[in-house]
Write a structure and sequence with these properties.
With about 230 residues, the chain is an alpha/beta fold. It is built from eight helices and six strands. The chain has helices at about 5-10, 40-50, 75-95, 110-125, 160-170, 185-195, 205-210, 215-225, and strands spanning about 25-30, 55-60, 100-105, 130, 180, 200.
Protein backbone atom coordinates (compact mmCIF):
# COMPACT_ATOMS: atom_id res chain seq x y z
CA UNK A 1 0.00 0.00 0.00
CA UNK A 2 1.00 3.64 -0.04
CA UNK A 3 2.00 3.69 3.61
CA UNK A 4 0.63 4.91 6.93
CA UNK A 5 0.74 8.62 6.10
CA UNK A 6 -1.37 8.18 2.95
CA UNK A 7 -3.86 5.96 4.79
CA UNK A 8 -4.11 8.52 7.60
CA UNK A 9 -4.92 11.27 5.10
CA UNK A 10 -7.71 9.20 3.58
CA UNK A 11 -9.17 8.23 6.95
CA UNK A 12 -9.11 11.86 8.09
CA UNK A 13 -11.78 12.54 5.47
CA UNK A 14 -14.06 9.83 6.90
CA UNK A 15 -16.18 9.74 10.09
CA UNK A 16 -13.95 8.94 13.05
CA UNK A 17 -14.27 6.48 15.94
CA UNK A 18 -17.69 6.65 17.57
CA UNK A 19 -19.19 8.33 14.48
CA UNK A 20 -19.51 5.37 12.11
CA UNK A 21 -21.78 2.34 12.02
CA UNK A 22 -19.05 -0.26 11.55
CA UNK A 23 -15.89 -0.48 13.70
CA UNK A 24 -12.67 0.08 11.79
CA UNK A 25 -9.59 -1.96 12.60
CA UNK A 26 -6.18 -0.84 11.35
CA UNK A 27 -3.59 -3.51 10.64
CA UNK A 28 0.00 -2.36 11.30
CA UNK A 29 2.97 -4.10 9.76
CA UNK A 30 6.63 -3.29 9.30
CA UNK A 31 7.53 -1.66 6.00
CA UNK A 32 9.55 -3.94 3.75
CA UNK A 33 12.12 -1.13 3.59
CA UNK A 34 12.67 -1.07 7.36
CA UNK A 35 15.43 -3.39 8.66
CA UNK A 36 14.31 -5.77 11.39
CA UNK A 37 16.34 -3.85 14.00
CA UNK A 38 14.30 -0.72 13.16
CA UNK A 39 10.95 -2.50 13.20
CA UNK A 40 9.80 -1.18 16.58
CA UNK A 41 10.33 2.44 15.52
CA UNK A 42 8.46 1.71 12.29
CA UNK A 43 5.43 0.32 14.17
CA UNK A 44 5.46 3.25 16.58
CA UNK A 45 5.38 5.75 13.73
CA UNK A 46 2.45 3.93 12.13
CA UNK A 47 0.70 3.79 15.50
CA UNK A 48 1.20 7.54 15.96
CA UNK A 49 -0.25 8.30 12.54
CA UNK A 50 -3.22 5.93 12.62
CA UNK A 51 -4.34 5.32 16.21
CA UNK A 52 -6.66 8.32 16.21
CA UNK A 53 -8.54 6.98 13.19
CA UNK A 54 -9.01 3.39 14.42
CA UNK A 55 -11.49 1.65 16.68
CA UNK A 56 -8.84 -1.01 17.31
CA UNK A 57 -5.33 -1.77 16.04
CA UNK A 58 -3.67 -4.99 15.02
CA UNK A 59 0.05 -5.63 15.31
CA UNK A 60 0.72 -7.91 12.37
CA UNK A 61 3.92 -9.89 12.98
CA UNK A 62 2.98 -12.79 10.74
CA UNK A 63 2.65 -11.69 7.12
CA UNK A 64 4.83 -13.93 4.95
CA UNK A 65 4.99 -11.25 2.27
CA UNK A 66 7.20 -8.76 4.12
CA UNK A 67 10.87 -9.78 4.39
CA UNK A 68 11.88 -10.49 8.00
CA UNK A 69 8.48 -9.68 9.50
CA UNK A 70 7.89 -13.09 11.03
CA UNK A 71 11.09 -12.76 13.05
CA UNK A 72 9.05 -10.44 15.28
CA UNK A 73 7.24 -13.50 16.63
CA UNK A 74 10.49 -14.52 18.34
CA UNK A 75 10.15 -14.05 22.09
CA UNK A 76 12.69 -11.26 22.62
CA UNK A 77 11.66 -9.21 19.61
CA UNK A 78 7.96 -9.64 20.41
CA UNK A 79 8.45 -8.48 23.99
CA UNK A 80 10.26 -5.37 22.77
CA UNK A 81 7.53 -4.56 20.25
CA UNK A 82 4.60 -5.09 22.60
CA UNK A 83 6.27 -3.15 25.39
CA UNK A 84 6.86 -0.17 23.10
CA UNK A 85 3.41 -0.05 21.53
CA UNK A 86 1.47 -0.62 24.75
CA UNK A 87 3.56 2.12 26.42
CA UNK A 88 2.69 4.48 23.54
CA UNK A 89 -0.95 3.55 23.95
CA UNK A 90 -0.84 4.37 27.69
CA UNK A 91 0.90 7.68 27.04
CA UNK A 92 -1.75 8.53 24.49
CA UNK A 93 -4.51 7.83 27.02
CA UNK A 94 -2.73 9.85 29.71
CA UNK A 95 -2.73 12.77 27.28
CA UNK A 96 -6.52 12.67 27.12
CA UNK A 97 -7.07 10.50 24.05
CA UNK A 98 -8.98 7.24 24.18
CA UNK A 99 -7.05 4.03 24.81
CA UNK A 100 -7.11 1.77 21.77
CA UNK A 101 -7.68 -1.98 21.97
CA UNK A 102 -4.61 -3.73 20.55
CA UNK A 103 -4.56 -7.24 19.10
CA UNK A 104 -1.75 -9.42 17.77
CA UNK A 105 -2.00 -11.37 14.50
CA UNK A 106 -0.03 -14.63 14.45
CA UNK A 107 1.01 -17.17 11.84
CA UNK A 108 -0.45 -20.66 11.43
CA UNK A 109 3.05 -22.06 11.06
CA UNK A 110 4.00 -21.60 14.73
CA UNK A 111 4.47 -24.69 16.88
CA UNK A 112 2.37 -25.03 20.02
CA UNK A 113 5.38 -24.23 22.27
CA UNK A 114 5.94 -21.08 20.21
CA UNK A 115 2.27 -20.17 20.65
CA UNK A 116 2.65 -20.65 24.41
CA UNK A 117 5.51 -18.14 24.40
CA UNK A 118 3.43 -15.66 22.38
CA UNK A 119 0.49 -16.02 24.77
CA UNK A 120 2.76 -15.42 27.75
CA UNK A 121 4.04 -12.21 26.17
CA UNK A 122 0.51 -11.08 25.33
CA UNK A 123 -0.51 -11.61 28.96
CA UNK A 124 2.53 -9.72 30.25
CA UNK A 125 1.63 -6.64 28.22
CA UNK A 126 -2.13 -6.77 28.57
CA UNK A 127 -3.11 -7.03 24.93
CA UNK A 128 -6.82 -7.13 24.21
CA UNK A 129 -6.93 -10.11 21.90
CA UNK A 130 -5.34 -12.22 19.20
CA UNK A 131 -6.08 -12.88 15.54
CA UNK A 132 -5.50 -16.49 14.51
CA UNK A 133 -4.30 -16.88 11.85
CA UNK A 134 -2.51 -15.23 8.98
CA UNK A 135 -1.71 -17.08 5.74
CA UNK A 136 0.58 -20.12 5.69
CA UNK A 137 3.93 -20.91 4.14
CA UNK A 138 2.95 -24.59 4.04
CA UNK A 139 1.96 -26.13 0.71
CA UNK A 140 -0.39 -29.00 1.63
CA UNK A 141 -1.93 -31.61 -0.68
CA UNK A 142 -2.14 -30.52 -4.33
CA UNK A 143 0.06 -27.50 -3.59
CA UNK A 144 3.07 -29.64 -2.63
CA UNK A 145 4.87 -28.98 -5.91
CA UNK A 146 4.06 -25.27 -6.00
CA UNK A 147 7.21 -23.21 -5.57
CA UNK A 148 5.79 -19.72 -5.27
CA UNK A 149 6.59 -17.09 -2.65
CA UNK A 150 3.91 -15.71 -0.34
CA UNK A 151 1.22 -17.03 1.92
CA UNK A 152 -1.47 -19.55 1.05
CA UNK A 153 -4.99 -18.66 2.17
CA UNK A 154 -8.49 -20.04 1.76
CA UNK A 155 -9.74 -23.60 2.17
CA UNK A 156 -6.29 -25.25 2.56
CA UNK A 157 -5.76 -23.13 5.68
CA UNK A 158 -9.08 -24.01 7.33
CA UNK A 159 -8.07 -26.98 9.45
CA UNK A 160 -4.78 -25.58 10.77
CA UNK A 161 -6.23 -22.21 11.75
CA UNK A 162 -9.09 -23.94 13.58
CA UNK A 163 -6.59 -26.12 15.46
CA UNK A 164 -4.68 -23.05 16.60
CA UNK A 165 -7.86 -21.21 17.64
CA UNK A 166 -8.89 -24.19 19.73
CA UNK A 167 -5.42 -24.45 21.27
CA UNK A 168 -5.37 -20.76 22.22
CA UNK A 169 -8.89 -20.93 23.65
CA UNK A 170 -7.96 -23.89 25.85
CA UNK A 171 -4.57 -22.48 26.83
CA UNK A 172 -6.16 -19.22 27.99
CA UNK A 173 -9.33 -20.83 29.43
CA UNK A 174 -11.33 -18.69 27.02
CA UNK A 175 -10.24 -15.43 28.65
CA UNK A 176 -8.42 -14.00 25.62
CA UNK A 177 -10.70 -12.77 22.81
CA UNK A 178 -9.86 -14.52 19.53
CA UNK A 179 -10.69 -13.35 16.03
CA UNK A 180 -10.74 -16.56 14.01
CA UNK A 181 -9.67 -16.43 10.37
CA UNK A 182 -8.50 -18.87 7.75
CA UNK A 183 -10.52 -20.88 5.26
CA UNK A 184 -13.93 -19.40 6.02
CA UNK A 185 -15.83 -20.03 2.79
CA UNK A 186 -19.37 -20.51 4.14
CA UNK A 187 -21.43 -20.39 7.33
CA UNK A 188 -20.34 -23.91 8.30
CA UNK A 189 -16.65 -23.04 8.31
CA UNK A 190 -17.38 -19.79 10.16
CA UNK A 191 -19.36 -21.68 12.80
CA UNK A 192 -16.48 -24.13 13.12
CA UNK A 193 -14.20 -21.26 14.19
CA UNK A 194 -16.72 -20.07 16.79
CA UNK A 195 -17.14 -23.62 18.12
CA UNK A 196 -13.34 -23.87 18.42
CA UNK A 197 -13.28 -20.81 20.70
CA UNK A 198 -13.27 -17.74 18.46
CA UNK A 199 -15.17 -14.67 19.64
CA UNK A 200 -15.40 -13.12 16.16
CA UNK A 201 -14.50 -14.26 12.65
CA UNK A 202 -12.72 -12.53 9.80
CA UNK A 203 -12.84 -13.33 6.09
CA UNK A 204 -10.71 -12.47 3.10
CA UNK A 205 -10.47 -15.27 0.49
CA UNK A 206 -14.16 -16.07 0.93
CA UNK A 207 -14.95 -12.46 0.14
CA UNK A 208 -12.99 -12.70 -3.12
CA UNK A 209 -14.76 -15.84 -4.28
CA UNK A 210 -18.25 -15.14 -2.93
CA UNK A 211 -18.50 -11.39 -3.46
CA UNK A 212 -19.37 -8.35 -1.33
CA UNK A 213 -22.57 -9.82 0.15
CA UNK A 214 -20.77 -12.87 1.53
CA UNK A 215 -20.18 -11.45 5.05
CA UNK A 216 -23.86 -10.52 5.42
CA UNK A 217 -24.94 -14.00 4.32
CA UNK A 218 -22.58 -15.62 6.83
CA UNK A 219 -23.75 -13.31 9.62
CA UNK A 220 -27.41 -14.16 8.95
CA UNK A 221 -26.69 -17.88 8.83
CA UNK A 222 -24.75 -17.73 12.10
CA UNK A 223 -27.58 -15.78 13.75
CA UNK A 224 -30.06 -18.44 12.61
CA UNK A 225 -27.74 -21.14 13.90
CA UNK A 226 -27.58 -19.47 17.31
CA UNK A 227 -31.36 -19.11 17.55
CA UNK A 228 -32.10 -22.76 16.89
Amino acid sequence: NEGAAAVARRLARQPGPGRRRIPLGVNLGKSKLAPIDEAVADYLESFRLLAGHADYLVLNVSSPNTPGLRQLQDADRLRELLAAVTAANRERAQGGADRKPILLKVAPDLTFPQIDAVLETIAQHGLDGIIATNTTLARPGPFAQVNQAGGLSGAPLRRRSTEIINYIARATSGRLPIIGVGGIMDAESAGEKLDAGATLVQVYTGLVYRGPFFPAAVARALADRQNR
